[in-house]
Amino acid sequence: MAQQDTDQQHAGVLPVDDEGFVIDTEDPEERETAWRERGVSRPITVVGNPVLHKECKDVTEFGEELQQLVADMFTSQRTAEGVGLAANQIGVDLKVFVYDCPDDEGVRHVGVVCNPKLVDLPADKRRLDDSNEGCLSVPTAYAPLARPDYAEVTGQDEKGNPIKVRGTGYFARCLQHETDHLYGYLYIDRLSKRERKDALRQMAENEPRYPVVAND
């Protein structure tokens, strides 16, 4: 598999495999810790906050402000014990998400995607998985939701370089879930009215285990 040179890696670019997909499984603890140590934990916005219900703006500037946002996102994600976090979940109207997520084989994936777009999959890659899904912005609520068990996302890394990310199982669900966020969709928007009502009931009946932004 192809390996980027040292200078590129230092710049934040992940190596890629022979098909051009990022290798986000190397040194995951070291990379996540490096981001998190620079960040500040922010409270999580929850369903009802307007920023969660509209398409976010494209990332066009890849400077220090974005680097700090990414660091804060990794820190906030760890505080909330999540596996993925979109910028609008901490109130920022930008198309960027971070992830620290295992796949179904227990392999840990860590990375950053700006301006993500889900690749439309052919029918032979559309095997559905109807596992339970939850969301930091709908705290304490879970519901089964059918999604393809394989996903590909194109976008840019935190330096603006084009990237492709792919995942299977739980990690595929994470990639789809976080991309949805940045286009104004929560997972409960994909549920039936009855299932959505039940998820909101679960949320109302329990206390989140991390700081949240109260809706007015």
Automatic annotation (TrEMBL):
It is an enzyme of class 3 (hydrolase). SUPFAM superfamilies: Peptide deformylase (SSF56420). Fe cation binds at C135, H177, H181. Its EC number is 3.5.1.88. Its cofactor is Fe(2+). The active site is at E178. GO terms for molecular function: peptide deformylase activity. It comes from the Bacteria. Keywords: Hydrolase, Iron, Metal-binding, Protein biosynthesis. It catalyses: N-terminal N-formyl-L-methionyl-[peptide] + H2O = N-terminal L-methionyl-[peptide] + formate. Binds 1 Fe(2+) ion. Belongs to the polypeptide deformylase family. NCBIfam families: pept_deformyl (TIGR00079), PRK00150.1-3 (NF001159). Removes the formyl group from the N-terminal Met of newly synthesized proteins. Requires at least a dipeptide for an efficient rate of reaction. N-terminal L-methionine is a prerequisite for activity but the enzyme has broad specificity at other positions. This is Peptide deformylase. The lineage of its organism: Bacteria, Bacillati, Actinomycetota, Actinomycetes, Kitasatosporales.
